[in-house]
User: What shape does this take?
Amino acid sequence: MRARLAAYGGAQLRDYLAGRALLTVVATGVAAWAYGFTHGLTWSAFDASGGIDARAQLQRAFEFVLTAFALIAAAFAAQGLVAKHRRRGYDLVLFSRPLSPVRYYAQGFVIAGLAAALLGAMAAEVYAVAVHPVSVIGAVAYVLLGWLTVGGLAFLLSTLTVFHVPLLLLILAADLSLDRYVTGVRASGAGSPVLDVAQYLLPPGHVVALLSGSFARGVVDPRAVVWPIVFGVSCVVAALLLLRRRPFGS
Amino acid sequence: MIELSHVSRTYAPTFGRPARALDDVSLRVAAGEVVGVSGPAGAGKTTLLSLVLGHAQPSSGTVRVDGVEPRRFVEREGIGYLPQPCSLPGGWRVTDALTRLAVLSGVHAQSVHARVDAVLADLGLEDSRRRRLRKLSPDARARFGVAQAVLADRRVIVLDEPLDGMSDDSLERLRNLVITLRAFDRAILIASRDTAALHRITDRVTLIDRGRVRRAGAPRPVTPVDVEAVFHLAVHQGAEHVLGTFPTAIALGKGVFAVRVSGLTVLNHGLRELLERGVLIASVAPAHVGAEPNAYSPMAQVTS
Assistant: This one.
């Protein structure tokens, strides 16, 4: 008698929508409001008869919100999965059943990513119809890229430690700061090939953050996403291997 | 079915001295047996159970369940397990939680609701079905823990401190449940600090303290020849003949019967008759509950 894991997917989706998806939408809403407030964006900017400046301002706002949504959704994708289960002892109840923890958590992670992409698609479609044309497919692909890279890192950290949330924030902050530092050094003419390689190999949070505009316009340089995808896949594979080896209740 | 052979388990914290939770422990639980592990808090009971579940690995020695590594067995068949504490999200309602766990236990889609209703009834949780887990009383929470452990038909059941938080009524329910769970192909391992209660619901009790076996569970004393007693009879095939031979026998579970006889001579005569009818007998053991005067009636209540 094997676990009916596929049938349990509905429960995992409900858990995601009632918890992490709601948090993602609220946090993105707060970020959007903060952006609009600090950039003096008013309702008149959404007027279709607005000039080129107004539309450019709207496009920048959309790219910001898309970036915020993708990163927040990715950070929440693994939130409440492995580390929380271990800390609270849910894993002891779950994995006495004929069930592989690798498959259970992999399914939960995939469902969170697909649900986030669906939410992103709905929001992008509404924006494209009501306000300004954007590539809905590009927006979905961008959310999935964020889920794979930042979400993959969050998933890996969640299998390693209960302090996965502060650790993720620390890594992303360090990543953005180092990227900015290296870019500054290069701009001052003191760059070097070593620095270029180091910048390329940083966790790709900064790359993802920069790509929302390209995805929203539907024009992406494939070379730009190679490292983020390799990084994300590596994190997910490492997380699944750790799940296989690490004892429960620890 | 469950076999621990010279098992030691040492916890090595990052800081501080290593602590040996189990030291050269050996224990066997055969199919058809209900075995208790008793000892004070910190004796190593939970560590022992976590090894059986494959949640932890032994530092030395071997642990096998049905001849294979515990984790392999769990992922193949599952174990009915009550951890201590039994933690699940407090916002889940009782029925929802049991339904989810039934799905994860592999209970067939058409049987899930019936199975959930059955364990709710067995554990007296019908009135709590809509309650959130965090709102359950300690007694109801303890019963919920046992309910989730017995949702599916498992060959191995492991209960860690099932008596904690239980009222006297719930203890009686648990005892009856253990009786009904007994099957010729099922091994049941129960850990508790309450040695006396364990003696009432198990076949034998192994006492451990500070990680070592202090007293291995002794076999039951031989039943005197001419004393009325209750026996647990487990048959592999031909169960339909048992009631013909022992008309007062009570069916306890899959191929398991409680048989009251006036003495060993009558028992052996009946067994011979069963063998002649082609019944394949798996085990015959004195029912521990038979030692108590009112032990026979609760079994009747459960099966009626």
Residues 229-303 of chain B form a domain with the Alpha-Beta Plaits fold (CATH 3.30.70). Chain B has a mean pLDDT of 83. The two ends of chain B are 30 Å apart (CA to CA).
